[in-house]
Amino acid sequence: MDRRYITTPIYYVNDRPHIGHCYTTLVADVAARAHRLMGDEVFFLTGTDEHAEKVAKAAADNGMSPMDWATRNADRFREAFDFMGFSHDDFVRTTEDRHKDKASAYIQRLMDSGEIALGDYSGWFDPSQEEYVPENVAAEHDFKSPVTGAPLEKRTEQNYFFKLSKHEDWLRQQIETDRIRVLPEQRKNEVLGRIKQGLNDVPVSRRVKEGDADWGITMPGDSDHRIYVWIEALCNYLTVVDTDERREFWPAEGHGTVPVTHFMAKDILWFHAVIWPAMLRALGERPPETVYAHAYFIAEGRKMSKSLGNFIEIDTLRAYAQRYSLDAVRWYLATQGPLGATDADFAYARFVEVYNADLANGIGNATSRVGNMVEKYFDGSLPKTCNGEFGLPGGKALGIALAAREAAGKPVDDPTRTFDFATETTAAVAKATEHIGACQLDEAVRCGIALVKRVDDFISYTAPFTLAKKLDEHEHGETALATILYSCAEALRIASLLLAPAMPGKMAELWRGWDCEHLHDPADAGSGFVAPLAELAAWGSPHGLKAGQTIRKGDALFMRADAKEAAPEA
Ligand code: MSP
């Protein structure tokens, strides 16, 4: 079994979570679930970044201590992530000792080895992002934050510096050769372009000023400085697994490799693709395998911002989930979100369109149609297939169905068309697996819907409902009908596996109705699946549907949505 470590950014707790935080965490959740489904042992981490100055400021503005404020918002993140059904294995808060102690030990190590040393620094600080902005970028943005538009502050301070510059060649080479995969490709080019302009050493501490809240981790051996929140925050990825039980997820050099994937949006790519790998190298640790930076969600065509007050809040997502189901929200985010390099819109009209096409009229309709027919024609018990006797559809069963269709006066438009679900499902699984490896999780789960569409086509083409009325007129008519329905049901079972990382709840509901519960134990701490995807999804595998198995019609997985209805509101 391969191990894999998947992370999200740890989020600031100055405010409550919104759709953006849920989106990245959903992407990571789909990746984690997909890898577990493939049989990997996954450690999936998310959490909160608490020592930022803006957290202390928000706390003061609200008359609370930084710690109480942080706890309140960290709890909101936890609740939001529980509501979204995320399967993280741990949730770290940077105010926890397990993080603080190790983060300072790493900084101490870097000071001991001379990778961090004292020096003078003067530059443009963006208080809204807690980071320094390079001179040229500051000038380009009229000395306002490139992210929030807040005025930049000129700051000069004596600081501890991390000697990033000495890792320049190594970083360029790692990224160029994809030893550190920076994805999507466009982001890789941007990062390489910026590295080629030259790397400056980066400040890693902040001098404590009078009146500062007692907030942050003190620089080891120098209580006049605190560790710059970004530097400390990045360490979370290692602090959490730097324990006896978990170290296997980030093995030291010479002890094997475990692919680490960091997910985030483009705003914080530089920290993850450049500063963090260099810090790891300086610590003698391996760099991450993949750094994936998606674009932004915008809302109804407009950038989300505090001043516009148009953040899609968790309560809005809850309202959507209440009307359409949580998995519908997950599906929309997973397939319509800004996974690539371009921003994506959260728009009600689009939501309804996608919901109806993929879910209500897609997997929902196909499963209830097949369930209905099995119930009607075979008393709800999956019929014995004619594998071997006639071959799979595309062979004789298809021929009989088409003959029945023609006999009913419905001409066959294209008699050369073939359906070979054994081959098609294998190809769909292979394609999905490839997409998962490339972090194209939207494409991966869409492979499930593509399969559903093929089942729909097959049903329209063979018209089993027509054949069912003419069974007596065709020798082997019943076997042909059985083969068609079996093929549809089995192809849908395989599609449901590919859809499960995005829609675990609804697919579990389907498995309950189709006697497939034994394939997946939701209470299991690991993947929960009895076998890896390649085995589970193999046509004719012992995990496949069997003759005699119950296929309950059940309620439709997704009710059709009415686009004329007003958008759900929190
Ligand atoms: N605390 C730092 C990260 C430290 S990681 C060691 C931070 N926190 S944040 O709360 O500002 O979160 C930024 C991240 O939230 C983005 O990188 C992205 O993952 C997510 N998003 C915030 N707004 C977003 C959108 N509008 N759209 C998509 N994702 C966005 O930066």
Q: Give the oligomeric state of the chains in this entry, treating copies of one chain as homo and distinct chains as hetero.
A: single chain
Number of helices: 20
The description of the largest β-sheet is: 6 strands, parallel
- What is the radius of gyration computed over CA atoms, rounded to a whole number of angstroms? 27 Å
How would the global form be characterised? elongated
- Which percent bin holds the helix content? 40-55%
The averaged pLDDT comes out at: 92
Q: Which distinct ligands sit in these coordinates? A: 5'-O-[(L-methionyl)-sulphamoyl]adenosine
Structural class: alpha/beta
- Strands of the widest sheet, in order across it, are 3-2-1-12-13-7
End-to-end separation in angstroms reads 43 Å
Low-confidence stretches: 388-394
The total strand number stands at 15
The percentage of residues in β strands lies in 5-15%
Defining key terms:
elongated, binds 5'-O-[(L-methionyl)-sulphamoyl]adenosine
